[in-house]
Design a protein that fits this description.
globular; mainly alpha; 83% helix; 11 helices
Length: 281
């Protein structure tokens, strides 16, 4: 726990908690909608925008880099919102999401192939820069996520309706394309900022694994969200402590901690429920 006294560690931990808070909530929507890899695909689209900024030699221009990354996520958001309608033609939406992810990743490789700093930027898009993130960057991200949180609170009714029962929402007059586009566009703001801090892999992990942990623990929305948040915070702390203790990269350490904790939670829930069934028999 001596690491808690290190300024860079405290900044990284704060950034991790920030990402965990917003992604565990958004992950609940994504997992319940059954579009597990949408975050990975949008994060890869954001990475493609960053790669374009590198190739255009504007990587030092934060506003332009952010704008390119956000613009690419909007392209992905429009694609996913439109493709939901195509799902009714017996083609799963996950198939299209996988195509977008693979294409965006291939494009990142191609775009960075001719850049002298390509390998370093490629690594950064995958694992981020948690231990070198500036406190000011974390503060800006916190303000952005707070605005996203307010937007989701105001729009919680249609978003939860569509997440829980899309066809029912359609029959009640909800225009799924526009609501989906709005959901994914707001999601794009989050992903674009998150990828620059934690990289594509950890952003995906923070979106899916805490949400799965929460839904494993309970089917009640409030309980599963609370479990997901606690689970994510504990895993972030454990992963970063392990990273400092064994001199390992931060983002992969947190991702492995998330997965390891999920296994422990799964075994614990199985034991507890097994005893409950035995006591009730």
């Amino acid at each position: 726990m001596e690491a808690l006294g290190l300024p860079f560690f405290r900044t990284a931990l704060l950034a991790c908690f920030l990402l965990a808070g917003i992604h565990a909530y958004l992950g609940f929507h994504v997992v319940r909608r059954g579009v597990i890899f949408v975050d990975l695909a949008l994060a890869q689209m954001a990475a493609l925008g960053v790669a374009l900024a590198v190739v255009l030699d504007h990587h030092d221009n934060d506003v332009l880099t952010y704008g390119l990354a956000l613009g690419m996520t909007f392209v992905g958001a429009a694609c996913f919102a439109w493709l939901r309608g195509q799902e009714r033609q017996h083609v799963p939406l996950e198939a299209f999401i996988g195509i977008v992810f693979a294409t965006a990743q291939a494009a990142v490789f191609l775009v960075l192939e001719k850049s002298p700093a390509g390998p370093e930027h490629l690594k950064e898009t995958l694992v981020g820069a948690l231990f070198t993130i500036a406190p000011g960057h974390v503060l800006k991200t916190a303000l952005l996520y707070a605005a996203v949180g307010v937007a989701h609170w105001l729009l919680r009714k249609p978003f939860f309706e569509i997440t829980g029962d899309a066809e029912g929402a359609r029959r009640r007059g909800r225009r799924l394309f526009w609501w989906d586009f709005l959901f994914y566009a707001i999601f794009g703001f989050v992903v674009t900022s998150s990828v620059q801090i934690a990289g594509v892999l950890l952003v995906f992990g923070l979106l899916v694994i805490p949400a799965v942990a929460g839904l494993m623990a309970s089917s009640r929305t409030a309980v599963s969200l609370a479990v997901g948040w606690i689970f994510a915070f504990v895993a972030c702390l454990a992963g970063l402590l392990g990273s400092v203790r064994w001199d390992l990269p931060a983002a992969p350490s947190v991702l492995v901690a998330l997965s390891g904790l999920l296994v422990v939670l799964g075994i614990g829930l199985r034991v507890v429920r097994g005893r409950g069934h035995a006591a009730g028999a």
